[in-house]
């Protein structure tokens, strides 16, 4: 019988190996899924993971898209990872993303049609504040009323979606839009447009922000007292209180930071790649970022790589949908599977598998 | 006449890296109280888990009344007349007494009938208990009664008791022993696990001594001295801590009417605690587990804050301050639970050094950490306190209990505190490490620190304390000089027999 | 706005229908949590049940078969969670989230060809005479079978937990898994059974949405119902009969806001639509706020081992 034995300490080797094993296992399981759907599994996997980067026909379009899609995932996942490490579960990043977009866009639209360099920075600040405030709701409720932040942050996603619908139909609707829902397009408003910084690379301010966030999180976790307190709280909450960590401050910091980063991601998306506030401009980055955070082992550099990989599955998924008729939903299921496999192999970090005589359980 | 009840032969069980039991052989006779004696880590609990069907032996045989006995699970062991009173882990706090007892029985009767049985048995054996009270609200002694009654309702042939007296006052121990003697007279065998030699000499007919997984000897404890048994158990002579005589200093720590609600669900709130501890003094705080020990430690370490004037350090109010501010001023603490409270299990010793030493040892500047300083400090603690580990990068959970405890205590002592509060400093620690820790505490007091030792080990407290006080229901007694205190006096300070009665089965 | 168009009788009758899917999911999750397991995948299991039930009902023409397969499908899905958390000792919060994300993807994959189809209808039970009682008749005696089965299920869960040995063992495992293990109970087996039961209930709840309440299949149609079910378990302080109260309260809010929308209330539709979520949050806050003595009502009632992994280490 197979038996698990606890390792005296976490295995360094498996910390690095688990994400790779999980990706490989997901490719195999995904291949089986594609085969069941009647597609050639090898072609499907190649289309998703290889073609967007190296097929000459698609790469010119796909490569820049990689950064465009990875940036919001990384920004959000970095924020979430801080909380996850401390055992603070913000799973409502999608709502904070929406609120950041609405706040930032509203500031930009308020200035329309004035042109000034100050407008975009103001939008960025407003976007961060929007996400921060939305995340502070579960934070404050947890600190003062001990309300479960998982449920509150998630339920607020639905509320944010209704606010988004209301905004794109009402307050922020383009007055010259012939009654169609959706705001003015920022692509035609230079001062508020989050344009590509280097043509053909997909590099926009959101990508820059994502890289800064990665560095910031790395320094925080490795070199700073606050980062140590975050890790300590997640590992041993009682030891953290004994060590002098103020749980309320930590909850507010983690939720606030993740909210602000999600809000930034929303603002950069709405003012750039998406271009306008519309009922369905959000495509679930806030949820996919949860997978990114875990796949990256809640480590900033890991999240950077995981964000790129997950962005690849988005782009490859679109390509597979276009070329092979694989439904977009299959990609979503594929991403979910990835998280399952990761969680399953994760056991090897802390436990050793031994094959031996049956133990009385 | 002696008839064998349980014959154990060549029982062996190995875990990765450690042989818990190595060819252990001994026999428990009908109607005898058989002691299983050994230090922490000697393999006592693995052995009883095998008898109780929780763990399967790798090799060896057991025979119960001559028939092969291989319980695949506790249920089977219970069906064969084996019952066990656990030291930990076996009660459900949120359930009531009757439900707890029903869970330990194979075919429990209806709740109402069971409640009647409970009342009857508890009456017979002098262990009063209300079947419908929630277990979480019971005292440690009462909880043990729940376990004992759960066993008695099954008319066991062999009753296993794992360190039963560690949660009792001396008076309660007397009552327990009367109950056990009554059971013996009724023909029940008892396997009595302990490391307290006096108790074993008082109660037991035979003693089997384990050391490092091997049987050292089976003897008649009444014919042995405490010293010879201790040497068999430890495998050498014990170092007895020495006191450096000293004059009483000024008041270092003063507690005035400290009342704090417990942060734990079934915890004990502290009520109007008053205390003065002087420089160079060791104050021992005794009491049965669950009478406010964790809460007092937390209130002093700063994990739980109180009215600012309730705690004074050198005359300055500190009651409202968080742990780090108190550390800066010189109050350090080491809580009871090593893994998860005093140390983070999955983090390295370097990180665990940072946990409490960052203020006094200046391991951070403007929030940025000086990992080199933390690592050096961890190395200092490992070296000075003889912590057995390959190095400071190893996780806390990879250390044995005794080594981790030396690290935790050493981490505080090397910071040169003015006041040190330790809770159960030698709990679950082998004898030589325990002696080292006690000596280190005495040395620290010799250097002028005020030390509060909270412990349930009365021998330990009598050995190192200048004055003694006891916690009972969240209240602290007036401290009295430890020298010359009798066991009876100590027991009364701890709350006496509470409301227990002596067994009167024979009389009824 | 015309409030007179809202009939209290119909309101209460439709409240029972609106509450049923959440009630099913919540009573299942209650059993899971009583066993000490926190499964945040309710939403994913519900929507999987919704599409399984819908697809089978459409293919076979039998709603009954649809419900049965919804329960089985969601229970199988819940076993992924069960295996990961019980054998692979994965973090329950993360695994539950993964279950929800995976379930949402899987369901829309399975549901590709079922968008826009009408399912076979489920008949209401006709109680002769009783349904003609004024007011009471339409409220109590004019529903489909699932409404009554759900109520029976709640009663059964309540009685099982309170009066039976199986219920006692389940609670014991949730309160202290080490003690339960020491007494010889199979902690992992009990928990797996509870997780499967929770999955089946969530699947039934999802199928009720797609087959009766809406009735139609659309992607993401559960719209947070699973999360609200989780909140209702907290609201109910882990007591079955209070789950009933919570679900009906939530059903009432949903139905009321729908009626207000239909009546042309001056508040924009979006703000009415978000009200059930806001009210759920409000209720959570009230239930979890500390009382006198510093302890929240819910923290007293939560199973002590909720969300903690169990590994028999010795």
Number of strands of chain A: 2
CATH class of chain A: Mainly Alpha
Shape of chain B: globular
C-alpha termini separation of chain A: 12 Å
Instruction: Identify the strand order in the major beta sheet of chain A.
Output: 1-2
Domains of chain A, number: 1
CATH architecture assignment of the largest domain in chain B:
3-Layer(aba) Sandwich
Walk me through what this model shows.
The complex is a heterotrimer of chains A (361), B (508) and C (314). By secondary structure, chain A is mainly α. Chain A is built from 15 helices and 2 strands. In chain A, helix 4 (56-85) crosses helix 9. Chain B has 508 residues and is an alpha/beta fold. In chain B, a hairpin with a 2-residue loop joins strand 1 (4-15) and strand 2. Chain C has a single domain, classed as ABC transporter involved in vitamin B12 uptake, BtuC. In chain C, 69% of the residues lie in helices and 0% in strands. Chain C has 13 helices and no strands. The model of chain C is unreliable at 294-298 (pLDDT under 50). The interface between B and C is medium-sized, with 27 and 23 residues.
Observed structural traits:
heterotrimer; B: alpha/beta; Rossmann fold; 7-stranded mixed beta sheet; 16 helices; disordered C terminus; C: 314 residues; mainly alpha; ABC transporter involved in vitamin B12 uptake, BtuC; 13 helices; globular
Summarize the helices and strands and which ones pair or pack.
The complex is a heterotrimer of chains A (361), B (508) and C (314).
Chain A (H helix, E strand, L loop, with lengths): L1 E5 L5 H25 L4 H9 L1 H4 L1 H30 L7 H19 L7 H27 L3 H21 L35 H19 L1 H11 L1 H6 L4 H25 L13 H11 L4 H25 L3 H18 L1 H4 E5 L6
Antiparallel strand pairs in A: 1-2
Helix pairs in contact in A: 1-2, 1-14, 2-13, 4-8, 4-9, 4-11, 4-12, 4-13, 5-6, 5-7, 5-11, 5-12, 6-7, 6-11, 8-9, 8-11, 8-13, 12-13, 12-14, 13-14
Chain B lengths: L3 E12 L2 E12 L3 E6 L5 H8 L7 E6 L2 E2 L5 H6 L2 E4 L11 H7 L7 H14 L15 H13 L5 E5 L7 H16 L3 E6 L2 H7 L2 E6 L2 E6 L6 H9 L16 E10 L9 E9 L3 E5 L6 H9 L9 E3 L2 E2 L5 H7 L1 E4 L14 H9 L6 E2 L2 E2 L1 H14 L16 H13 L5 E5 L7 H16 L3 E5 L3 H7 L2 E6 L2 E2 L3 E2 L5 H7 L15
Parallel strand pairs in B: 3-8, 3-9, 6-7, 7-8, 13-20, 13-21, 16-19, 19-20
Antiparallel strand pairs in B: 1-2, 1-4, 4-5, 9-10, 11-12, 11-14, 14-15, 17-18, 21-22, 21-23
Helix pairs in contact in B: 3-5, 11-12, 12-13, 13-14
Chain C lengths: L7 H27 L7 H19 L2 H24 L5 H19 L25 H5 L4 H19 L1 H11 L1 H6 L4 H27 L11 H11 L4 H23 L6 H20 L8 H5 L13
Helix pairs in contact in C: 1-6, 1-9, 1-10, 1-11, 2-3, 2-4, 2-9, 2-10, 3-4, 3-9, 6-7, 6-11, 10-11, 10-12, 11-12
């Amino acid at each position: 019988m197979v038996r698990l034995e606890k390792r005296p300490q976490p295995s360094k080797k498996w910390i690095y190996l688990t994400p790779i094993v999980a990706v490989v296992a997901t490719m195999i399981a995904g291949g089986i899924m594609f085969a069941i759907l009647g597609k050639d599994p090898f072609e499907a996997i190649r289309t998703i993971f290889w073609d967007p980067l190296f097929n000459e026909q698609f790469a010119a379009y796909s490569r820049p898209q990689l950064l465009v899609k990875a940036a919001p995932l990384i920004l959000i996942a970095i924020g979430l990872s801080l909380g996850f490490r401390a055992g603070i579960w913000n799973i409502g990043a999608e709502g904070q993303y929406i609120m950041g977009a609405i706040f930032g866009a509203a500031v930009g639209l308020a200035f329309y049609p004035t042109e000034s360099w100050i407008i975009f920075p103001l939008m960025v600040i407003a976007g961060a504040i929007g996400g921060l405030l939305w995340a502070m709701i579960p934070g404050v409720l947890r600190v003062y009323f001990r309300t479960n932040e998982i449920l509150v942050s998630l339920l607020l996603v639905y509320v944010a979606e209704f606010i988004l619908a209301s905004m794109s139909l009402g307050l922020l609707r383009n007055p010259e839009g012939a009654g169609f829902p959706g705001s003015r397009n920022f692509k035609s408003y230079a001062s508020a447009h989050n344009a590509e910084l280097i043509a053909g690379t997909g590099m926009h301010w959101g990508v820059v922000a994502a890289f800064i966030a990665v560095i910031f999180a790395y320094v925080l976790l490795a070199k700073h007292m606050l980062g140590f307190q975050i890790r300590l709280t997640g590992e041993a909450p009682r030891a953290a209180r004994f060590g002098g960590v103020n749980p309320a401050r930590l909850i507010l910091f983690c939720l606030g930071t993740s909210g602000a980063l999600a809000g930034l991601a929303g603002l950069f998306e709405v003012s750039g790649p998406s271009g306008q506030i519309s009922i369905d401009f959000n495509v679930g980055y806030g949820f996919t970022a949860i997978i990114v955070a875990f796949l990256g082992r809640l480590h900033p550099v890991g999240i950077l790589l995981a964000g790129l990989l997950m962005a690849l599955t988005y782009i490859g998924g679109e390509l597979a949908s276009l070329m092979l008729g694989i439904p977009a939903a299959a990609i979503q299921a594929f991403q979910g599977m990835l998280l399952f496999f990761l969680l399953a192999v994760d056991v090897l970090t802390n436990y050793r598998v031994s094959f031996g005589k049956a133990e009385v359980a | 006449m002696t008839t064998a009840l349980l014959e154990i032969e060549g029982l062996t069980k190995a875990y990765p890296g450690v042989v818990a039991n190595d060819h252990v052989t001994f026999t428990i006779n009908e109607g005898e109280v058989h002691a299983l004696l050994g230090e922490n880590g000697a393999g006592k609990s693995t052995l009883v888990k095998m008898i109780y069907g929780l763990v399967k032996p790798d090799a060896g045989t057991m025979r119960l009344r001559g028939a092969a006995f291989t319980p695949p699970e506790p249920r089977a062991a219970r069906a064969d007349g084996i019952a066990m009173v656990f030291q930990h882990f076996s009660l459900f706090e949120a359930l009531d007494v009757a439900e707890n007892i029903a869970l330990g029985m194979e075919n429990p009767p209806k709740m109402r009938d069971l409640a009647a049985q409970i009342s009857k048995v508890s009456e017979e054996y002098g262990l009063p208990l209300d079947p419908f009270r929630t277990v979480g609200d019971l005292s440690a002694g009462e909880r043990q009664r729940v376990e004992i009654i759960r066993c008695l309702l099954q008319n066991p042939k062999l009753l296993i008791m794992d360190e039963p007296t560690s949660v009792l006052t001396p008076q309660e121990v007397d009552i327990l022993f009367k109950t056990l003697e009554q059971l013996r007279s009724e023909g029940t065998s008892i396997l009595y696990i302990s490391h307290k030699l006096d108790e074993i000499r008082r109660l037991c007919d035979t003693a089997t001594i384990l050391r490092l997984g091997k049987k050292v000897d089976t003897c008649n404890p009444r014919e042995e001295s405490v010293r010879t048994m201790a040497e068999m158990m430890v495998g050498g002579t014990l170092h007895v801590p020495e006191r450096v005589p000293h004059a009483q200093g000024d008041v270092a720590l003063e507690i005035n009417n400290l009342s704090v609600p417990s942060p734990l669900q079934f915890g004990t709130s502290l009520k109007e605690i008053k205390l003065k501890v002087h420089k160079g003094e060791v104050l021992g705080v005794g009491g049965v587990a669950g009478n406010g020990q964790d809460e007092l430690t937390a209130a002093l370490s700063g994990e739980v804050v109180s009215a600012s004037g309730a705690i004074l350090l050198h005359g300055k109010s500190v009651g409202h301050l968080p742990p780090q501010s108190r550390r800066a001023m010189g109050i350090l603490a080491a809580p009871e639970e090593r893994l998860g409270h005093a140390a983070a299990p999955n983090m390295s010793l370097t990180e665990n050094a940072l946990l409490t030493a960052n203020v006094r040892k200046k391991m951070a500047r403007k929030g940025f950490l000086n990992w080199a300083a933390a690592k050096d400090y961890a190395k200092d603690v490992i070296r000075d306190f003889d912590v057995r580990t390959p190095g400071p990068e190893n996780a806390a959970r990879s250390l044995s209990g005794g080594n981790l405890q030396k690290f935790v205590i050493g981490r505080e002592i090397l910071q040169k505190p003015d006041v040190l509060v330790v809770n159960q400093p030698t709990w679950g620690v082998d004898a030589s490490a325990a002696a080292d820790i006690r000596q280190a505490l005495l040395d620290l007091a010799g250097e002028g620190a005020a030390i509060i030792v909270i412990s349930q080990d009365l021998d330990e407290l009598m050995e190192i304390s200048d004055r003694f006080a006891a916690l009972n229901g969240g209240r602290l007694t007036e401290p009295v000089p430890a020298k010359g205190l009798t066991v009876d006096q100590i027991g009364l300070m701890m709350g006496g027999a509470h409301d227990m009665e002596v067994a009167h089965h024979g009389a009824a | 706005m015309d409030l007179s168009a809202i009939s209290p009788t119909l309101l209460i009758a439709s409240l029972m229908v609106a509450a049923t899917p959440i009630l099913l999911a919540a009573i299942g999750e209650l059993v899971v949590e009583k066993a000490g397991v926190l499964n945040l995948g309710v939403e994913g299991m519900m929507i999987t049940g919704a599409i399984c039930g819908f697809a089978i009902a459409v293919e076979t023409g039998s709603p009954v078969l649809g419900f049965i397969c919804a329960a089985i499908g969601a229970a199988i899905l819940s076993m992924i969670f069960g295996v990961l958390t019980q054998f692979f000792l994965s973090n329950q919060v993360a695994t539950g989230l993964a279950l929800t994300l995976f379930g949402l993807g899987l369901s829309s994959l399975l549901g590709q060809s079922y968008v826009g189809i009408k399912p076979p209808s489920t008949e209401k039970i006709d109680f002769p005479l009783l349904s003609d009682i004024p007011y009471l008749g339409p409220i109590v005696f004019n529903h489909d079978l699932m409404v009554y089965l759900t109520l029976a299920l709640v009663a059964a869960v309540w009685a099982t937990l309170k009066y039976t040995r199986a219920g006692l063992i389940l609670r014991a495992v949730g309160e202290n898994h080490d003690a339960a293990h020491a007494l010889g109970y199979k902690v992992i087996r009990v928990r797996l059974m509870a997780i499967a039961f929770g999955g089946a209930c969530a699947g039934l709840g999802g199928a009720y949405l797609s087959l009766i309440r809406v009735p139609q299949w659309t992607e993401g149609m559960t719209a947070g119902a699973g999360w609200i079910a989780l909140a209702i378990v907290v609201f109910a302080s882990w007591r079955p009969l209070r789950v009933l109260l919570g679900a009906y309260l939530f059903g009432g809010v949903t139905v009321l806001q729908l009626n207000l929308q239909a009546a042309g209330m001056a508040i924009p539709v979006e703000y009415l639509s978000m009200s059930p979520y806001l009210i759920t949050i409000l209720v959570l806050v009230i239930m979890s706020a500390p009382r006198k003595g510093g302890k929240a009502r819910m923290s007293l009632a939560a199973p002590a081992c909720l969300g903690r992994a169990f590994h028999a280490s010795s």
